[in-house]
Amino acid sequence: MTIDVILGLQWGDEGKGKIVDYLAGNYDIVARFQGGPNAGHTLKFDGQKFVLHIIPSGIFREGITNLIGNGVVIDPVILKKELAGLREANVDYKSRLLVSKKAHLILPTHRLLDAASEAAKGKEKIGSTLKGIGPTYMDKTGRNGLRVGDIYTDSFRKKYEQLRNKHTQLLSIYPTIDFDLESLEKRWFESIETLRELPAVDGEYYINEALNSGKKVLAEGAQGSLLDIDFGTYPFVTSSNTITAGVCTGLGVAPQRIGEVIGITKAYCTRVGSGAFPTELHDEVGAELARVGQEFGATTGRPRRCGWIDLPALQYTIMINGVTQLVITKIDVMNDLETVKAATAYHVNGETTSALPFDFNCEEIQPVYTDYEGWKTSINDVTDFGDFPMEVKNYIRALESQLNVPITMISNGPERTKLVLRNAEATV
Ligand code: GDP
Ligand code: IMO
Ligand code: MG
After folding, report:
1. Which residue's alpha carbon is at the smallest distance from atom 11 of ligand 1?
2. Which residues contact 328 (CB under 8 A, 6 or more apart)?
3. Mean pLDDT, to the nearest integer, of 331-356?
4. How far is the CA of 159 from the centre of ligand 3 (A)?
5. How far apart are the CA of 181 and the centre of ligand 3, in A?
6. Protein residue with its CA nearest to atom 13 in ligand 2
7. How many CB atoms lie within 10 A of CB 148?
8. Ligand 2 midpoint to CA 129 (Å)
9. pLDDT single digits (tens) 374-383
10. Is 0.85 topped by the overall pTM?
11. Are 222 and 239 in contact (CB under 8 A)?
12. Residue 380 to residues 383, 388, 413, 415, 424: CA-CA distances in angstroms?
């Protein structure tokens, strides 16, 4: 069997959690391959709302195994809280959740380093979620990190203390921040005991054996391709490979195992944190998208910046990821707009191009827009593509023809059931 992939094509928050939750019923295993508690994946069903940070979005489906892959970074304190939320909701996670021994741990001092590094950057800050993501991946690539498998060894405390001591020395080069390390550590070690209760597996063997025995596996991405450490809008990115290639390193599967790559984009665009956003709207249309779309970070609560859909950026992320199907979310948020715009090219230094410039953040990028007529009616109850107003169909078809990938699903509301399947035979 092959492994299908779901990932975001913009700057995150495209609605991955909702779509993974919807599709999870078609799979045996859902596996997160990168990122950590910087992610906030929202699921809504049966009148309830859940936000997942580290746990894969298949957790609410009975009979499905969820794997936290080796590419993920885990804060045991946040994981413990998430598990408590699941217990409250009567979700039997113990029979559904596995964690890879090779996943790295976020230490309390990683979070402090994240905060100190951001404080030192001042106006130039990345706008990180302050969850310790960057420092943890730095220790991974610097070969200093602690992994889940280490918690079962006798030398765990010693290794922890060595790394913690290195971090406290490092902290002294940054502006002073207040913290009570003793109480942070106490809570962290208590949470390690909760992590110990989850089955720790050799995730790479687990996934490959599952695929060999005919199981269907869905890989769930976090963040979005424009936040990828290599191909995103560097340096305003996260510290992992958020793209399809990250599935291979983040789960231990070979490239030829990759099956469908389902790319998700909002019908418009949002970004939270710093960095360029050529199609950002600073007017009342942007404010309306933020209000109707309730565009506040699921992890930090920060307001998300809003703007028009950016087709050159999507063409780029579709290319990098090998996207085979597209999902458009939040189309209902545009219900009241007179005109809907899509950026189809950029003017950069007097030239028109559809290529993303090397320095996405400094170049003067002026989007070139195409206008589409708005539909000015609620489409939240539409269940068949044929019942969408002509203006919606025109917009979807225009996106499809410019992106050159079939749009197989259109999401028209936050709830699990609000999904219009198109080309149903093409969806997994
Ligand atoms: P993720 O990080 O990609 O999983 O996305 P988030 O959960 O951070 O943000 C997406 C937000 O949009 C959440 O509040 C979802 O409940 C909501 N959402 C998802 N799909 C739709 C949709 O089609 N319409 C509307 N109005 N909201 C949606
Ligand atoms: P999901 O999975 C949106 C952004 C942060 C910041 C940059 C680096 O919910 O789509 P980090 O904490 O990773 O060092 O922050 O990346 N960012 C996200 N933005 N959605 C996310 O995840 C994000 N995870 C990180 O705002 O700009
Ligand atoms: Mg999110």
Report:
1. 15
2. 265, 266, 267, 396, 399, 407, 409, 410, 411
3. 96
4. 33
5. 29
6. 238
7. 25
8. 6
9. 999 999 999 9
10. yes
11. no
12. 9, 10, 6, 10, 19
